[in-house]
Amino acid sequence: MSAPSDIVARVREHALQERGELPARVGEWEVAAAERELGFPLPRLLVRLYQEVANGGFGPEYLLLPLVGESRTAVAEYGPCEYWPHGVLPILDWGCGMYAAVDCLDPDAPVLLFEPNAGPEDWAEAWFTDSPSLAQWLNSWLDGTGWWEEGEENMMTEGAPEPQPWPDATRRLAS
């Protein structure tokens, strides 16, 4: 596993190679304002991505949402409700109602997959663990091994492991 500084540097380099020009980065006061509005602190690695890489516009497939700004942002998309747990920040919209989200209340900052399309009777059944940490999720993108990637290494290949239900979903949705 790469150190956070190495991950941030690799993400920036990869994003520049893929996208060319990146959006502006956010400053400390923007992060502080976002955390006040959300009501919880953001994981340090996520903050560093927004401060040292860009305010969204990079990452797997559909790209990370900007943290803050005038258009659609992670802060604007967040809203605890019957199906969205407190402290779980959407960072990427996969389309069709699906999101990648970071559990900001867990020190490991796992990345979760919200997949509501199966029409669950219990919203806890729509939450899956995508990666045990944001760092591992980013490394999957950097290495081209994420489930969203085409190729032999991803989850979509035959025999690949199925996404596992998020074990904290029921407890976190009840609080």
Could you characterize the architecture of this molecule?
This protein has 175 residues and is an alpha+beta fold. It has helices at residues 4-19, 28-38, 44-52, 74-77, 134-143, 169-174; strands spanning 88-95, 98-103, 111-114, 127-131, 164-165. The chain has a five-stranded antiparallel β-sheet. Helix 1 crosses helix 5 (134-143). The longest helix has 16 residues, at 4-19. It is globular.
Strand line-up of the largest beta sheet: 1-2-3-4-5
Estimate what percentage of residues fall within beta strands.
Answer: 5-15%
How many strands in all? 5
Succession of helices and strands: HHHHEEEEHEH
Q: What would you report as the Rg, rounded to the nearest angstrom?
A: 16 Å
Percent of residues in helices: 25-40%
Overall mean pLDDT score? 90
Task: Count up the helices.
Answer: 6
| Secondary structure category | alpha+beta
Q: Main beta sheet, described?
A: 5 strands, antiparallel
So what's the overall shape?
globular
Ends distance: 33 Å
* Subunit arrangement of the protein: single chain
Return residue spans where pLDDT drops below 50 for at least 5 consecutive residues. none
Topology:
Layout: H1 4-19, H2 28-38, H3 44-52, H4 74-77, E1 88-95, E2 98-103, E3 111-114, E4 127-131, H5 134-143, E5 164-165, H6 169-174
Antiparallel strand pairs: 1-2, 2-3, 3-4, 4-5
Feature tags:
single chain; 175 residues; alpha+beta; five-stranded antiparallel sheet; 5 strands; globular
Concise synopsis of the structure shown:
The chain has 175 residues and is an alpha+beta fold.
